Amino acid sequence: MGCIQSSPAAADKQAPDTPAKDVQPEHSSREVNGVQTKDPPIKAVEHEQPVEQCLAAVDEPSSPLMVVWKEVEVPLPLDEQNRWDQLVGYNILDTEPEEAYDRITELCKRLFKVPIAMVTFVDKDRVWLKSVQGLPGLKQVERRQSLCAWTLLSRFPEALVVPDLREDIRFKDFPVVVGWPHARFYAAVPLVNSDNVRLGTLCILDLKPRDFSSDSCTLLAQLASMVMREVERKRAMNDVLCNTAVRHESGDSITHDRQGLMLCDMATAKWAIYLVNEAWHRTTGISHEMAAGGHFWDLFEPPAPAQVQAYRLAVEQRRNFELRIPCNVGGGAGGSSIGRTNPQLEPLLLQQASSTAGSMAGGNGLNHSGALLQPQPVQSTWSGSLPGANSFSGACHSQNIQQQQQQQDASGGSGGSSTAAAAGAGAGTPSAAGGKAIGFVSAFSGHEASRRRSIGGSMRYVRFQFRSISSAASHMTPAVSIPPALLSQDTRSNFYWATVDIPSAASTHGGDEAGSSFISGSNLYFTGGPGGVFGGTDNAWAGSVHASDSAAPSTHSSGPHTATGPGSDSSSMQQQQMGGMKTTFSLMPEDNPFQDITIGSLLGWGSYGRVHRGYWNGSLVAVKVLEQVAGDFNPRTSLEPLLHHRLSHPNIVAMFDVCTQEVDVCEDGRPLQEVWMVLEFCNRGTLSDAIQRGWLLSVRDGAPQPGQLDLLRALATAREVARAMEYLHSQSVLHGDLNGNNILLAGAALAPDGVDRRGFTAKVADFGLSRIITPENEKIITRTHGTITHMAPEVITEATHSKAADVYSFGVVLFELLSGSKPYQGMHYAQIVSSITSGKLLQMLPQQAPHLPPGLLELVASCLATKPVDRPTFIEVHSKLQELETAVAAQQQQQLAAEQQLAPAQPAQQQQQHVGYGCYAASAAAAAAAAAAAEAGGDACGCTQQVTKQAAAAGLQ
Ligand SMILES: Nc1ncnc2c1ncn2[C@@H]1O[C@H](COP(=O)(O)OP(=O)(O)OP(=O)(O)O)[C@@H](O)[C@H]1O
């Protein structure tokens, strides 16, 4: 695997999507294992040919076609152009390393005990590495010398495994095999998107030959699907955030906030900034254009790698934390400008600073140019407090630093300039008297120092308080609503709001008016030297933190005494020379999660708790409150939140958060707890209620027609429930209590094509009786029971729950949906049990529902089959419902066209009302097209045959 520097020469080569030509003479000579060899002349071949022929040639090593392939191009998948277009659409190439991917490759290394693991994306002529373990510094590989390029071929549907690369004629001469790192084993699974397009691979390499079991392949495939989920999630997120509507929605609500606000994605290496408001610009002096779409750590000096552990832990644990970054305040009322040390900005900053120096003296620094007035060359370091961080050996030293800082603060930032001038000459002596002005000046040349004096700025800290949008917030959380699109992306753990302000000099340390734990007695601080940061590459700092870094938390006082190492004494000295001005990190006190939830009116009681309407982070939600005794494992209260949390599907009620608090003490002294589940609010009630209210009936002149089921509404609703259940079962979760009361309806916009006129989406809820099954044990014996009317016979008689029992419950829901009446209506509990156990099961007879397509009746009957094995799976149910829905829609469209033909004189709108409401038909446009086709002498809609076939297949005719 040769590392290529994307050279123009490589780019000039024949593009892979053009047919291969005769190979030029210079290709025919190459070096293998240091020996110059001459290859036979190469014939012109089409792209698809080399792949197939080369594959065939694997069985026939002497075939010259291998040479053809090697010298012509890499093997290309059939859909290469589309594949590449799609890859580019993800905007992932050449992005920074991201923790989410690094975690997976790290996991691969450990799971499969291999030294090398990678996430790769296959670009036109290179394979680019999004995450790489074990090959430090490697960023990309020439595509034609890449093993991964082969994994894209559909010839390898699941995985490409090469036990010994030396024995494989395709790969034995690859640089990665004959040279460093001398790979022997390769296994890869393609990263396949929802369009079945292969974008890249998750692959592992070993330096010795080995076997790879099919179980390992499955595991690798599962990890690859995690990678793909991350890729899709990121794209969805980008789509959302590029969507101007969303930007406005959230932008509007924060624009007028008086506090500086910023929304960051902490999953990105340098903390991508999505939104900032006007107050942010006023406070920091950094323009909206420069901030939004950029990265936090491009605006400020990044911390040393070892210290990055602190924020990583904080973000992982969704803790809220505070950063104080030294800044240069331009003097005057509230005005400030935060220095940037981004080398690219430096010249601009200096230039602007000098040009504005005169005008800014004593000014407020609020105007745009003023914003860029003083670069801040003080190198950032981190001090942080971590839970249980008393192992940091820098504690004692840190205290000194704190004291120094306090003394520095006491010496007065604003009056620092004269001291600075004095100290400038003798820079380098760490002393309390030096104050921050000493550091300020000592970091500059004499010229700079005098220029700064003339500007009259003073050194302060700018405070950023980062709050996870998923951690239940406190009164300090910005009172703006989170864009719902962000919440629905299940990325809550990565997004943080940060407020920004510049505390007054008096509160810069210790006397913190906002009540943060900054320099609190309980928090130990460590300070980190900046060494290793500034010398590194732009992206290196975040990606280069490995587990081993955390083993050396003693970042300055006891580390190796090198000039540049993070543990360097000299770096500590350097800070002190700069007056101790450094970026500090501290965790904020735990927010009380309950403070962020406002409970409103009661929506209802269930058998295990109550549900309230409420607000969470400014969004309307439902809050389900369950009670439990601490330490008791009650599946109902303990399992439901856990289980619900891992589900994410458009037809399943979303759970945003969960928190627990003690509310009382039981008689035996154990605490009584309340579990609050923050749920998506479903504003249209339950499906059972909707049926009773006639929401699934045909509507004529605005009124529901009693007894006239609108089949399309019913089918669409049933399909959504089946889709949710298909997903649930694919996640190995049994619902256990599917019934009309546990299917909630959330208001939805009417479909633009006018076909779906329900105005709601069905969502499965209530996982209180849900259980996880395993492939070995697909049945659960349970003593907890759901709703008697919806329980399958085997659940009642044998207490055995399975996927088939859920299907039975769904059959009962279908019965209710289609008949409009409650199952076993008028019967009491014992009668129902006796009826079910004696084999008199619920049935939907054709004479009861003559208007229903036979195919639908068959589906209901099969779901309600006595024996579990006779019931369909949800995959089958879902597909059957889809088929029926399509056929019914087509049939109604055909009817509409026919009716329109009969009444051509009526105005278009009337026609639409007359036919459209009554039989829930298609749009006027479709009808008009059908009528036109009929008029032209063809069959109505021009698709009679097709419709008839579809209808017959669905059992309609
Ligand atoms: N996400 C939600 N949005 C709107 N209303 C909800 C939501 N979740 C539950 N409700 C309503 O709150 C009430 C109680 O719901 P809950 O799920 O606790 O009980 P249940 O399903 O009626 O009974 P059980 O829990 O015993 O099965 C019901 O009326 C339900 O419709």
Describe this structure in words.
One of its GO terms (molecular function) is ATP binding. Keywords: ATP-binding, Nucleotide-binding, Receptor. It comes from Tetradesmus obliquus (Green alga). This is Protein kinase domain-containing protein. By secondary structure, the chain is of the alpha+beta class. Among the domains are: 159 residues, Beta-Lactamase, CATH 3.30.450.40; 88 residues, Beta-Lactamase; 84 residues, Phosphorylase Kinase, domain 1 (2-Layer Sandwich), CATH 3.30.200.20; 212 residues, Orthogonal Bundle (Transferase(Phosphotransferase), domain 1), CATH 1.10.510.10. 37% of the residues lie in helices and 18% in strands. It contains 34 helices and 29 strands. A six-stranded antiparallel sheet has the order 5-4-3-8-7-6. The chain is globular, with a radius of gyration of 34 Å. The N terminus and C terminus are likely disordered. The structure holds adenosine-5'-triphosphate. Adenosine-5'-triphosphate binds next to strand 17, strand 18, strand 19 and strand 21.
- Strand order, sheet with most strands: 5-4-3-8-7-6
Which overall shape is indicated by the principal axes computed on the Cα atoms?
Answer: globular
| CATH level-two architecture of the domain at 685-896 | Orthogonal Bundle
Attached small molecules: adenosine-5'-triphosphate
| Spatial extent as radius of gyration | 34 Å
Instruction: State which percent range the strand residues make up.
Output: 15-25%
Tell me the number of strands. Answer: 29
CA(first)-CA(last) distance: 62 Å
* CATH superfamily label of the domain at 685-896: Transferase(Phosphotransferase) domain 1
CATH class of the domain at 685-896: Mainly Alpha
Give the biggest sheet.
Answer: 6 strands, antiparallel
Instruction: Write down the CATH topology of the domain at 685-896.
Output: Transferase(Phosphotransferase), domain 1
- The whole-number mean of residue pLDDT values reads 65
Backbone structural class: alpha+beta
